[in-house]
Design goal:
- Helix content is 41%, strand content 12%.
- By secondary structure, the chain is α/β, with parallel strands linked by helices.
- The chain has one domain: Arginase, Chain A, CATH 3.40.800.
- The protein has a seven-stranded parallel sheet with strand order 2-1-3-7-6-4-5, with helices on both faces.
- Strand 4, helix 6 and strand 5 form a beta-alpha-beta unit.
- Helix 8 packs parallel to helix 9.
- The chain starts with a strand and ends with a helix.
- The model has no long low-confidence stretch (mean pLDDT 98).
- The structure holds zinc ion.
- Zinc ion binds next to loops.
């Protein structure tokens, strides 16, 4: 599995839990054996595919955040390009993005990494229709707002009790038509994280379901982007389990 990552994501750019020291280190430690690739920062034109100019200016005014937010967006873009070429990949990036809408951001998010990387592929006609699976504890209101009304992207948030959450994912992946799957991979719904619902092996199973759905429907084209996950003691092994199923 190709993992898009830069040591610049170790930067503590704010005081929120997504930016906490040790968080990325906890994941990187568990991902030995994967091939790591360095991202390029996204350009302003990429950000403006899904965000308003005033949104861009508001993030630009945060000097500790702006460069790392552009690099995180660039990481998602690189993962999306690889996926398009048939190589499943994972963007190990921060800040996360799924709470960033066209002109708003909150919940530790600034630019919507997944949405802008996907919109770039849709705009360039590299993808006709995409399925977006978000299994973070929190609903990706930013992503849902960006693609609201779009016939070219379907958004599904995995929620509910464990069994219904897993069944909901399976049903979404089998029901929809798509030629690429983009995953907002948040790990804060683990039994030892904020949500308290999923086991480590559930993340492996979710990865496997996406792989199977993508192989059945779209030649295996899939990529994931890191969102939440805050218990450093379990985060790394949860990401590793997901990639074992997903790869
Ligand atoms: Zn979350």
């Amino acid at each position: 599995m190709k993992v898009i990552y830069s040591e610049r994501f170790l930067t503590v750019y704010s005081s929120d839990p997504a930016s906490a020291p040790g968080r990325m280190e906890a994941i990187v430690r568990e991902l030995r054996g994967h091939e790591f690739l360095e991202p390029e920062p996204a350009g302003e034109e990429d950000v403006l595919l899904v965000h308003t100019p005033s949104h861009l200016e508001r993030v630009k005014a945060l000097p500790s955040v702006y460069p790392v937010a552009l690099l995180a967006a660039g990481g998602a873009i690189k993962a999306s390009e690889l996926a398009c070429g048939g190589e499943p990949s994972f963007a190990l990036v921060r800040p996360p993005g799924h709470h960033a809408g066209p002109s708003s951001f909150w919940g530790f998010c600034y630019f919507n990494n997944l949405a802008l990387s996907l919109q770039r592929l849709l705009s360039r006609r590299k993808v006709g229709k995409a399925a977006i699976l978000d299994f973070d504890l929190h609903y990706g209101d930013g992503t849902a707002a960006i693609f609201s009304g779009s016939k070219r992207a379907s958004y599904h948030h995995a929620e509910g009790r464990r069994e219904e959450l897993l069944e909901g994912i399976a049903s979404f992946l089998s029901r929809e038509d798509y030629d690429l799957v983009a995953v907002s991979a948040g790990f804060d719904n683990h039994e030892e994280d904020w949500g308290g619902t999923l086991s480590t092996s559930d993340y492996r199973e979710i990865g496997r379901m996406v792989k199977e759905g993508a192989e059945e429907k779209c030649g295996g084209r899939r990529y994931g982007v890191l969102e939440g996950g805050y218990n450093h003691a379990v985060l790394g092994r949860n990401v590793r389990a997901f990639l074992e199923g997903f790869g």
